[in-house]
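> @MW can you paste both from yesterday?
MW: sure, first one:
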Amino acid sequence: MDVNWYDAPSGGTLLDADTITYSTDVAGTYYAEAVSTQAFCPSTSRTPVTLQIDPLPNVNDEMISFCENEDVLLQAGVTGVSYQWSTGETTPEITVSQAGVYTVEVTDPRGCSNVKTVEVTQVDLPVIENIRTENGNIVVLTSAADDVEYSLDGVNFQNQSIFENVPGGLYAISVRGETSCSNVTQDFFHLVVPKFFTPNGDGINDIFEVQGISSLSNYEINLFDRYGKLIKNSSGEPLIWDGSYNAQLLPSGDYWYTVRIENQIYQGHVALVR
């Protein structure tokens, strides 16, 4: 006996012939007609076979980023099923600390299963390569390939790597990626030294003073003339110079300074302009 398959109880379209099985992925009712292989006589009626396609568990693939040196939680996102992760766990969620592609197969009580894929990428922390003082500004250089944010206090962040007209002092420079990964922080002493001063009594730029150093205790400042003669010195106290030496006004010109803060020495020159 052979079987012919139709889409209607009578007449209709022949879907398949001479086979006891019919394969399809479309739900509906199909009709089997038995045919005698000896007399080639079809049956007087067709047998209905209803195909019901149960939906698979609903899952959605994900792409997740996580910060360097941190863990990330992966969730199957569906309940009432059994779980089989590519890592071997059988729980609704797992914690991972490595980048990669993870999968979880979820199977419902009917035996229907689906697979969710989670692609996990690691966001590397930015690296502070250099911090420098430039014309009263603080300039921060990083090796980060993506956009980063910068802060002088770890609270207020900006997109620009240059902080303009910053008062002298000690700052905790913080840099973070745009994904708000943990901050990378580095202490930096911002030394602000005037390039010139004009001690003419008009109240504007009348003195030479190193800004921001008063918050420290272990430092020393020395001032020299162009011949290397020590003009003024201060250890642990602010140095204020009005352009005189032994109560005598010194001439216009370049004078040199060294600033020692603990084991680090800064040096440069300032122009006295009369």
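MW: second:
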Amino acid sequence: MTEETPQETPPASLTREFSVGRVLANSFSTLNSNLPSFGLLALILMIPNAYFIIAPLGGSPVTLGDISNPLAIAGVTMVLQVIFGSLLSAMLIYGTFESMKGHKVSIGDLISKGLAVVFPVVGLAIIIGFIIALGMILLIVPGVILAIMFYVAIPVRVVEGRNIGDCLSRSEKLTKGHRWSIFGLLVLVVIISTLINAVAGGLMAIIGNLPLMGTILYIVSAYITAFGSVISAMVYYELRAAKEGVDIDELSQVFA
């Protein structure tokens, strides 16, 4: 891990308090104002998740050649989930910052920026997942702490272009002092996601049509996934604004 040049603490007048409410409000606003592009990309890149959404509803088994092999399909699907999920995160993190600056970003631009960093982001996501899983196996609490500590590592990679080790170190430093707030935010996100799923479940109970039920679940899952990517970008921005006095114009310059 390379040694970082110590940064001077910015004047208090340039910083602001980290706000969970502002993160949530800005995340909903950004996602909903960019729903056509963000939503379409989420729907496309969430295709691997369709296997896990449709199968519990009694969908047709997936086959490899002439051999029905659900375990093999599930394994391949999980790999694709990591790749496609990382690509989606990179695209929406970039799109979030451009939107915050008032720019309209095209789907083509989102795809181009996402593909440019997809492999480093995939590698980073795998390492973070392994570290968190190890923490969960040992004891649940360390896993949760690690998840919060490295929560903004992927936005760090997308925005700052650091190597994997530096991304983890940078995320650890940015989240320090705000981890309880981030934990509370993530609890709220889980509650919101649960409520959205509950509403979708109620609609499905009324409809009672399996194909339509699967479609509703798929759309809801895509929206929640996109929301998660936007949230991570917003948390990263709020942390840098709180600790370094950085504004959105400074962050957006790295994409110019």
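> thanks! The first strand starts at residue 63 and ends at 64.
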